[in-house]
Amino acid sequence: MKAAVIRSADAEAEYADFAEPPVSEGREVVDLVAAGIHRVVRSLASGAHYGSKGVWPSVPGLDAVARTGDGALVYTGFAESPFGTLAERIAVPSRMRLPLPAGADPAQIAAGMNPGMSSWMTLTARRGEIGALGAVLVLGATGVAGLLAIQNALVLGATRVVAVGRNAEGLARAAAAGAGATVPLSGDADTDAGTIATAIGGTTPSLVLDYVWGTPAECVFRALGRHGLEEDDADIAYVQIGSTAGEKAFVPASLLRSRRIRLVGSGAGSASIADVIAQLPAYMQLIADGRVTVPVRTYPLSRVADAWTAAADSRERVVVIA
């Protein structure tokens, strides 16, 4: 079959022949309709992501919209390495074939499910903990996942969203999506910490969604700092989702002692797969209804090399279609 093929850790995807995926018990073969080249897909393919198997040659891709043998359109994934979803045919678990809502655009579903679920699970869990979200801060709001995080927070009733990021165009898009405040990062830590603190104002966020980590996270930590011995009346969940700005960040001891703040991570391995699957139909419906939208650029599978290069720009989600 034809597929996107990665031949080594530092290689780009190429359109080439690859073995047909074997069908084991509990799996079925489906035909590709659309699959996103998500940031995590590129990271896994290069071996940089902690979840990478480090096997080459391989077919990248985590999830897809596919057509089953009986003609149904389904959202699916969980192909077994070295096989991925950027291929003409995919062997997937029979339990992971979720019907697309009526009228859903396959490209939007393929583009939005992976980056959108990265915040949806955390937001719904946090709302369940505290009853109402209140204010939410999104660090790394200019990428597709950040843009969807803003929309997700507002759909779930957040009273205000503060969007923080580097790209001016992305921040303008965040504002158009409903962010109540946008904070451009300058690269100067003192300036950025002060600007974030000003944007937060007197409303401490109940939830921080961090897609970048590194120095920008340190700026947020400084902005959240407080002085005084009075009991903190806030309750902050700081959720680390991505690390595009660096794998390390300095967390001030004074922040942990002076504030009611919980620092946790969210990603593959830390979340229950069963819980994620249970939430997928509801999120697909949001995309189908147009309540959340994602900027998409599509390429045919035969142009996967061009698509792979284009996917390095995080402001659109590149989707490969059969």
Describe this structure in words.
By secondary structure, the chain is an alpha/beta fold. The chain starts with a strand and ends with a strand. The protein is built from 9 helices and 15 strands. It is elongated. The chain folds into 2 domains: 2-99 and 294-321, Quinone Oxidoreductase, Chain A, domain 1, CATH 3.90.180.10; 114-265, Rossmann fold (3-Layer(aba) Sandwich). The chain has helices spanning 39-46, 106-130, 144-155, 168-176, 189-200, 214-224, 253-258, 273-289, 304-310, and strands spanning 2-5, 14-17, 27-36, 63-67, 73-77, 89-93, 97-99, 135-139, 160-165, 181-184, 207-210, 236-240, 261-265, 296-300, 317-321. Strands 3, 4, 5, 6, 7, 14 and 15 form a 7-stranded mixed beta sheet that branches. The chain has a 6-stranded parallel beta sheet with strand order 10-9-8-11-12-13, sandwiched between helices. It has a two-stranded antiparallel sheet with strand order 1-2. 44% of the residues are buried. Helix 2 packs across helix 3 (144-155) and helix 2 crosses helix 8.
